[in-house]
Amino acid sequence: MLPRGASSMPPPPNPAPYFPPARVTLPSGLEILRTFSGAVICLEILFGTIVWILVASTQVPLPLLQGWVMFVAVTAWFLSIVFLSVFLFGYANRIALNWNQADFIFHGATFVFYFGAFLLQAATTSLHHFPREFNSTAHERILTGHEYNISIAASVCILCTGI
After folding, report:
1. Full-model pTM
2. Which residues cross the membrane (predicted)?
3. Using CA atoms, how far apart are residues 34 and 15, in angstroms rounded to an integer?
C-alpha cells in the first residue's frame, strides 16, 4: 500500500536538462578571427570579392548563367560581412540563439549556393570552343582567349570559396 497522499505516478521530469539555454561558444571581438569559423568567413569574403571582380570583368556572354553567379557572389559576400560583424562587435552575446547551429547552417547554405554557382560558371567556361554565328560570313567564339582565362580563374575561385 502507498502512504497517505502518495500517488503511483512518478513526478514529471525536470525540463532543464532537456532544453539547455543557448550559449555562445564562438568568441566575440577579434578572437573570432582566430577560430576556424572566423577564418572561413574571411576567406569567403576574400574569394567572394575576387569572384565578383572576375565575373564583372568579362563581357558576360550568357547573362542568365552569370547573373546567378554574380547574385550568389554579392549576396554571400554581404551576408558574410554581416555574420562576421555580429561576432566582431559582440552582438552574438546579446542575441539568444544557438550560434553553433547558426554557423553550421550559414556555412552549409553558402556551400550549396557557391557550388551551384561553380557549376554554372564552369558551364559558361566550357562553351569557349563553340562558335557564335553573328552573320553568314563571320564566326566568333563565345569567349575570347582572355575572357576564357578569366572565366577559368572565376570558376576556381568559386570552387575555393564554396569549399
Report:
1. 0.72
2. 36-56, 68-92, 104-123
3. 35
